[in-house]
Specification:
With 220 residues, the protein is α+β, with helices and mostly antiparallel strands. It contains six helices and six strands.
């Protein structure tokens, strides 16, 4: 049981997906079109509605690749089923977990034995004071967006909680899968903000470096 009274099971269905990211309180839409993940969705809907998003350690298309040890469980908050049996679901991030072991089910999807104890505060809103970092975060985000040519709704950003901004950027921006894993594993929201700013600053600098030769050639 978590500090909020939410009972989290010792075993959950796992969805290994390298390019997706889920954080506590963030949303993730998914289209379940493979038979094994349709079976996984049916299991989750009939059990605890929890699906553990976890990243494979390699890009190989193995059926059962090795997994990172830290993932994030999401609760199915909405779903629809198509005529051909596919599911479209939306997950709301609940808590990170540490994977202890996993096994393949008769439905050909993976179940994991998980430990939630290192992330007891995840189901509740973070109590950290991040106000001092917010101006720097928004400045880094603005520089990153300008340098990469990406757009953002600044009215929405200005009205959003700091955690919402961080999670939305971490999910939607094209960071490397291992970089997103590092953001997921950050021990605190403060550290996640700092790590995210570092990633954005590096990406912005690389984008400017890539632009420089072309800019120079146009000037010539």
């Amino acid at each position: 049981m978590t500090d909020t009274g939410l009972v989290l099971p010792d075993e959950i269905a796992l969805f290994p997906l390298r390019d997706a990211a889920l954080f506590p309180r963030s949303h993730l839409p998914l289209n379940m079109f493979e038979p094994r993940y349709q079976a996984m969705t049916e299991y989750a809907l009939g059990a605890n509605r929890l699906i553990g998003m976890i990243r494979p350690r390699s890009e190989n298309e193995d059926m059962n690749p090795p997994l990172y040890s830290i993932g994030c469980a999401g609760r199915v908050v909405s779903f629809s089923e198509t005529d051909n049996g596919q599911f479209v679901v939306e997950l709301l991030g609940v808590s990170r977990f540490r994977l202890i072991s996993d096994h393949l089910t008769d439905g050909n999807f993976r179940m994991g034995e998980v430990d939630w104890s290192a992330f007891r505060s995840d189901p509740s809103s973070p109590q950290e004071d991040t106000d001092s970092l917010r101006p720097q975060l928004l400045s880094s985000l603005e520089t990153y967006l300008k340098s990469t040519g990406l757009a953002a709704d600044w009215e929405t950003i200005d009205n959003a909680a700091t955690e919402t901004i961080v999670n939305s950027v971490a999910v939607s921006c094209p960071f490397d899968a291992d970089e997103k894993q590092a953001l997921l594993e950050a021990p605190s929201l403060t550290q996640r903000i700092r790590d995210l700013m570092t990633l954005m600053e590096i990406a912005a600098a690389e984008a400017l470096d890539d632009m420089a030769p072309d800019t120079f050639s146009r000037i010539q």
